[in-house]
Amino acid sequence: MSLSVLGAIAPMPAPAFAAAAAAAAAAAAAAAAAPTTTPLTRRIPASGEAIPLVGLGTWITFNVGNDARARDACAEVVRAFFANGGRLIDSSPMYGSSQPVIGHALGKLGRLASLFSAEKVWTGDGARGAAQMEASRAHWGVPRFDLMQVHNLLAWEAHLPRLLAMKAEGRLRYVGITTSEGRRHGEVERIMKTQPIDFVQFTYNLVDREVEERLLPLAAERRIAVLANRPFREGELLRALQRHKLPGWAAELGCDGWAQAALKFIVSHPAVTCAIPATSQVAHVVQNLGAARGPMPDAALRARMAADVAALA
């Protein structure tokens, strides 16, 4: 906050003050409401390292450009995410301004030892991959990324050898590939069978379940960690379900809404390591992390959940 030439504190414009006050109040409420129990975790097969079952995606929600208030609101989401036990944040050069917005948040919070940084390389020119990854690292302000993934398999034949070499040199901890919306599953399967990757990321939720047939069992067999994207179909699934009353099994699982029910279905699959819902609201990130606590459905209840949702959505 700057000082005027008279030495008095310059007043903040009313809308900006209101927004800042609301963000501060939301952050304080999230911190006060932070649970005393830690979220449930699952181990990364390649190392045995445990990460919470729910992470934070940034597609669309963190693409806020240079809007100072929106950036600060995203920073409060990140603050609440860590206050509630979160670790893994996922982004990509494809996500507009999401990378510098993450960097803004991490800069406000200070260096967080618990952060698990998951990024992507996304360029059809293999020769440009190294420069793009370095630009991403600078945006985040981290010394190195924990996980680097080839986004949507773009030029993976060129990028993957570089990522594996960077891992061997200690410049990355894990290497992976991604796809979404059910695309190119055959190619993903071939890579999983033939390449020494640590992570695979694809779409999995209550209605998009094709990966249950081959990719999830293969991940378990090959000891590859799984990140589940589009858990809410970018909100489409929740909008369809919120017109309906929660089934009785939601109370059995301790769910306070459809979002937690949807996430518990995903992360209770034994081959899924972490689901990565995106949000721009503190209340929602707290709710999402809540899905990594309490009872989880067994195989029979998971089948019932999927059947009930198929009838509703």
Strand order of the largest sheet: 3-4-5-6-7-8-9-10
Q: Quick one: how many beta strands?
A: 10
Distance between the amino and carboxyl termini: 49 Å
- The computed structural class is alpha/beta
Q: What's the story with the biggest beta sheet?
A: 8 strands, parallel
Instruction: Estimate the mean pLDDT confidence.
Output: 91
Form type: globular
Please report the number of helical segments: 12
β content, as a range?
Answer: 5-15%
Low-pLDDT stretches are 1-21, 27-32
> Rounded to an integer, what's the Rg over CA atoms?
20 Å
Task: Give the ordered list of helices and strands.
Answer: HEEEHEHEHEHEHEHEHHHEHH
Q: What is the helix fraction of residues, given as a range? A: 40-55%
